[in-house]
């Protein structure tokens, strides 16, 4: 009988994070101060000192503190599966593997960094973290991370999601976090917006402004970000380091890796540990998958832009659709970011990865096929990568090549069943690339 599930022993678990900055053939472009356009760092009163150090470190491996290793082992190693039943259904000679992060208590990879950020905040004597969340994936991961480390957690949740998607809010509250609909009356930014528009549905940009203001005005509070930043991507490399060992033990090596990109953290977690091999000449095709409605890497220009609508971040060199761009309401809420992690942008610039954009109806069709064969309902975000994996497996069927394909399955979709219902009842629609809205947003990007 062939093996379906690959795991690791305690001794085989990674004890350090991998920092790709040590191996980049050219260093990352610097962050720029929005006023002076001079190189700058992350604003220190907002982030833990250790995280700021990690953000700019060029050390290849950074040791994971013992207490964190212990906590990570509550759900790690996560399983690597061989998708025998999907392969059979597709009648493909390809070998499909998937690394599944849905087994974490948060149901996604996001807990791999939230718990780390809480840990380093506590090390600085901080008592509380503030953050924003859209549909609630990051907010619930930070709530769980803070509860493990013993910090308070305040989450500003975009009001429409707060009202329409109660389950992740309830999860946050179950883990002891305080979750308020944004705009809220708890901050000046929120009060200003409510006085102009008491019925404001909120937006991620408004919620970020509120969380940052909260952290700036309190000595006991830091701000926390769930993706994009270098240190966040590095925390996720435990995923790829595990995969490398799991595949090595199984005697296989990927020809293709596919993962979805919102801010880029789950994709980075899986692929970054493979970058040194690729730089040494190993042939491996690395595909980043994004929605056709928010095609940052396939259609966005490579330029300096703000990370957020409120223009609070330094200027970041990245592929961007413009910081004022509001993407159509695709169901993969986690993929609706206008920009992308600088590290992933840099790998694209250097030709080490490639990008593909997909429409959501075809994405859900693939996700349902995956669920019916493998028994896991993928979150709408990684469902984008499922689509590409199935396409590649079908290409193998035509060519007769038995490629080894690795899918980054970043989380489950059990809180996203309303999206599946929309698909199953034929109500899901595709959005064309909103060219005019992107052009308008790009005209507001500062000239550097
Ligand atoms: C948030 C989220 C994403 C998108 O964020 P990245 O930083 O690009 O990984 C993808 N998948 C799941 C399950 C998520 O919760």
List keywords for this structure.
alpha/beta, Rossmann fold, 4-stranded parallel sheet, binds pyridoxal-5'-phosphate
Word description of this protein:
The protein is 40% helix and 17% strand. The chain is α/β, with parallel strands linked by helices. The strands form 5 sheets. The protein has a 7-stranded mixed β-sheet, with helices on both faces. A 4-stranded parallel β-sheet has the order 10-9-8-11, with helices on both faces. α3 (84-90) crosses α16, α4 (111-123) packs across α5 (137-149) and α11 (237-250) packs parallel to α12. The chain is globular and about 60 Å long. The protein binds pyridoxal-5'-phosphate. The site of pyridoxal-5'-phosphate has 19 residues, from α12 and α17. Pyridoxal-5'-phosphate is lined by residues 108, 110, 137, 227, 260-267, 334-335, 379, 381-382, 410-411.
Distance between the termini: 60 Å
- Classify the fold: give the CATH topology of the domain at 65-107 and 231-438: Rossmann fold
- The CATH C-level name of the domain at 65-107 and 231-438 is Alpha Beta
Mean pLDDT: 95
Distinct small molecules bound, one entry per kind: pyridoxal-5'-phosphate
Low-confidence stretches: none
Name the strands of the widest sheet in spatial order: 1-6-7-17-12-13-16
DSSP helix fraction:
40-55%
Largest sheet: 7 strands, mixed
How would you describe the shape? Answer: globular
| Radius of gyration, taken over Cα atoms and rounded to an integer in Å | 21 Å
């Amino acid at each position: 009988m062939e093996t379906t599930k690959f795991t690791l022993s305690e001794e085989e678990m990674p004890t350090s994070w991998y920092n790709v900055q040590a191996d980049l053939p050219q260093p990352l472009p610097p962050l720029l101060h929005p006023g002076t356009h001079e190189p700058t760092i992350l604003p220190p009163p907002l982030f833990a000192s250790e995280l700021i150090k990690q953000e700019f470190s060029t050390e290849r491996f950074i040791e994971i503190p013992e207490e964190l290793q212990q906590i990570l082992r509550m759900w790690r190693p996560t399983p690597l599966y061989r998708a025998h039943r999907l392969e059979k259904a597709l009648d493909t000679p390809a070998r499909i593997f998937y690394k599944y992060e849905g087994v974490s208590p948060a149901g996604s990879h996001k807990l791999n960094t939230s718990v780390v950020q809480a840990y380093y905040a506590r090390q600085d004597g901080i008592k509380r973290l503030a953050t924003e969340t859209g549909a609630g994936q990051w907010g619930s991961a930070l709530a769980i991370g803070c509860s493990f480390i013993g910090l308070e957690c305040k989450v500003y949740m975009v009001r429409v999601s707060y009202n329409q998607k109660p389950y992740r809010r309830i999860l946050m509250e179950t883990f002891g976090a305080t979750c308020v609909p944004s705009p809220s009356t708890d901050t000046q930014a929120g009060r200003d917006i409510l006085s102009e528009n008491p019925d404001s549905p909120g937006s991620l940009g408004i919620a970020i402004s509120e969380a940052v203001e909260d952290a700036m005005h309190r000595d006991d509070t830091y701000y926390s970000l769930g993706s994009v930043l270098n240190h966040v991507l590095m925390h996720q490399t435990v995923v790829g380091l595990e995969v490398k060992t799991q595949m090595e033990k199984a005697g296989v090596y990927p020809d293709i890796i596919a993962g979805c990109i919102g801010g880029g953290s789950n994709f980075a977690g899986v692929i970054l540990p493979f970058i040194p091999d690729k730089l040494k000449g190993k042939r491996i095709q690395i595909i980043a998958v994004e929605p056709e409605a928010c095609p940052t890497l396939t259609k966005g220009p490579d330029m300096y832009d703000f990370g957020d609508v409120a223009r609070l971040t330094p200027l970041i060199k990245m592929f961007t659709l413009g910081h004022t761009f509001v993407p159509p309401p695709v169901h993969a809420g986690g993929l609706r970011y206008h920009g992308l992690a600088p590290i992933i942008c840099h790998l694209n610039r250097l030709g080490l990865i490639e990008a593909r954009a997909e429409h959501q109806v075809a994405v859900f069709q693939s996700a349902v096929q995956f669920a019916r064969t493998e028994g896991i309902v993928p979150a709408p975000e990684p469902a984008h990568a499922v689509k590409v994996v199935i396409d590649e497996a079908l290409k193998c069927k035509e060519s007769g090549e038995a490629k080894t394909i690795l899918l980054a399955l970043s989380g489950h979709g059990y809180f996203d069943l309303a999206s599946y219902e929309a698909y199953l009842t034929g109500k899901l629609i595709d959005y064309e690339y909103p060219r005019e809205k992107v052009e308008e947003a790009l005209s507001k990007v500062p000239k550097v």
